[in-house]
Amino acid sequence: MAVENRISISFNDQEYLTLERLSAHTHMTKAALIRAIVEEFLRDNPDRFRRKSKVSLKRPKNILLPQKKDGS
Question: Using one digit for the tens of pLDDT, what is the confidence trace for 5-58?
């Protein structure tokens, strides 16, 4: 069976041990933990990876992540 939306990432030994400890502590799989970290980071820092330009555009809402049903 083909799996869609798969990504492969690499960690050095130190980062992997940290991820292993976090995974054991939170009782989450490493994949679920990485998804949570990325989602929280993008939600809290929506402008982190946007290019700087002469036009200082500030977006009123985060367009990176889907909005929740309650409008937030």
Answer: 888 999 999 999 999 999 999 999 999 999 999 989 988 887 787 777 776 666
Q: Is the distance from CB of 23 to CB of 29 less than 8 angstroms?
A: yes
C-alpha dihedral over 31, 34, 38, 41, to 10 degrees? 150
Every domain of the chain and the residues it spans: 11-62
Other beta carbons less than 10 A from residue 56's beta carbon: 6
Q: 45 CB contacts (<8 Å, ≥6 apart)? A: none
In the chain, how long is the greatest CA-to-CA distance? Answer: 48
Regarding pTM above 0.70, the answer is no
